[in-house]
Structures are given as structure tokens and as C-alpha cells.
Amino acid sequence: MSDVKTYVAGHKSPDTDSICSAISFANLLTQMGTPATPVCAGEANKETTYILNHFGFEHPQIVKNWEEFAPEGGNLYLTDHNESKQIIDGYKSMNMCGVVDHHRIGDFETDGPVFMRLEPVGCSNTIITKLYMENNQEIPKGIAGLMLSAIISDTVLFRSPTCTETDKEMAHKLVEIAGVDIESYGLDMLKAGADISDLTNDDIVRTDMKEFSEAGKTISIGQISVMDTTDVLAKQAELVAALEALRTANNYDASYIMVTNILDESTTLLFSGDVEAVVTKAFEKEVKDNGVFLANTMSRKKQIVPPILGAMK
């Protein structure tokens, strides 16, 4: 057996699908004869912490830089991302082996051929569930719980426009194994993630933050989902100031935060930077105080990123 270690990692500013997909895919590789270790790029958020505790999993080890964590290198699989700015720093020192993702294809490059599984579904764990089934691998109860939770999270309990019939089909197969009531458990899980009472303004604007590049410019887009946006939007000016501090510190051309209302399925998009014209062009909506209200909007990858990047061209 090779002494080279194999790792599976999600993206920076990890969300539930990022961490759970690293765990579930590492388990699949291990069951199929390639021992793999899941890691993550940062602390789990409240929703993910609730999930890990509920199904009895330890928090994966946090890795900030691959060159420092694994100076002798190793094999690396990515889940839930493929854009270079979202990958843990120092990844070029690793032997890239594969990607499982459900986002757009960015600027990802490898030195040689790798395993790639990308599908236009609502969640990376939907794809991983299919991989278990296609390879005739048993899905342990706890792993089923993690994958189900990720699907619930990414599709917002099937409310998101990114949700597909495949997501629903895989989720209902996982429910039978995980042994939970999908509605009651799903709402409890989402409520746990929606508690922002102890978050600072800086914490809020950095929630689930991802970087994107277009036309030589780099932006950040975060998302925080709550049951009621009243308290968050009451301090809109403070959040815009926190976005500006974030933008300046990282030399972004713009920084955005989606404040998403889970119950009425809407988003207020706040931003900093000289991009009012971009936002107006992207959404054809009135911009006020560095913000725009977007009804029937919950998905960053489908409803926010494409129009913004398109307007930047």
C-alpha cells in the first residue's frame, strides 16, 4: 500500500455541503480501497455543527495551507468547488486527483488527467450519493444523515430554484437510511443555522463567502440565511461598512452579502465598491443605500453569480 496520504477538502469559508461532502466522499474512497481523510478550510458554521453533533461526527481537521500541513505532499480531491480562489492555499504542492462539484467550471487547471464528476444539481452530496449507488457501496447511517443534511441545506428544504428532481430522489433514499423525519429535522437544522444573535457585523458579511473573478476583477459574495431579516437589515449601513472593510482588506473590486429570508424565499443583496451600475444592470432593480431587494431569490450560484459576472463583462 502506498505511503502517500489522500485527502478530501471542500472550499474556503466552508458551508454544510462543503464539509459534509468532504466527509462522505472520503468515506466512499476508503470503502473502495483508498484510505482518505476529510479536512476543511475553516470552522464549521452553526448549521454544520448542529449536523455533526446530531449524527456523531467530529469536526474535520482544519487546513489553511497545504504546503505547511503536508510538506511532503499528498493526493487531493476537491468537493463542492473547483475555482482556484476557493481552494485551500498551497494546493499546487499536492497531487490533484479529482473533483466532485455542482457549480460552474472556473479557472481550475491540473497537470494531468483527473477524475471529474460535475452535474447541474442542487448539492454535491446528491452526486456523491449517486456514486455510492453506482459503485454498489453501502451507505452507513451517519453518512446518510450528513449527505441528507447537505441536500436539505443547499436546496433550503427543496425551496431553492437550484433543487432538481434528482436532489429530491436522492434525499428520500437517504431518509430511509438516516432514520429522520425530513420536515421536522430539516426545519430544526435550518433554524440552528439561522441563529445569528452572537455574530458580529464582520462575521455576518464573511458568512459562506466565496471569491469570483471576471474581466480581470475579483469580487466576494457571501450569504447568510435567516428566518426573519428584520434585525439584520436594521443595521444595513453597518453591514455595508463591514463589507467595505472586507473589500479594502482583500483588495476586492466589490464585496456582496446575500441576506436571504428562508420563509418568504427572498434576498436583499448588499454591496460595497463602485458597482452600483453593475448591480442595476444585473438585476434591473432600484438600488438604495447599497442594497437591492430580490423577490423569489435564494440561490447564489444560479440567481446571483451569473447576472453579476455577466454585468461585469
Descriptive overview:
This protein has 313 residues and is an alpha/beta fold. It contains 12 helices and 11 strands. The strands form 2 sheets. Strands 3-2-1-4-5-6 form a 6-stranded parallel sheet. The protein has a 5-stranded mixed sheet with strand order 7-8-9-10-11. The longest helix has 16 residues, at 16-31. The N and C termini lie far apart (49 Å). Its cofactor is Mn(2+). Keywords: Hydrolase, Manganese, Metal-binding. Its EC number is 3.6.1.1. GO terms for molecular function: inorganic diphosphate phosphatase activity.
Supply the key terms.
313 residues; alpha/beta; 6-stranded parallel sheet; 5-stranded mixed sheet; 41% helix; hydrolase; EC 3.6.1.1
Overall pLDDT score? 96
Radius of gyration: 19 Å
Major β-sheet, in short? 6 strands, parallel
Strand order of the largest sheet: 3-2-1-4-5-6
Number of helices: 12
Low-confidence stretches: none
Category from helices, strands and their pairing: alpha/beta
Strand content: 15-25%
* Tertiary shape: globular
What is the chain-wise order of helices and strands?
Answer: EHEHEHEEEHHHHHEEHHEEHEH
Q: How many beta-strand runs?
A: 11
- Helix share of residues? 40-55%
Distance between the termini: 49 Å
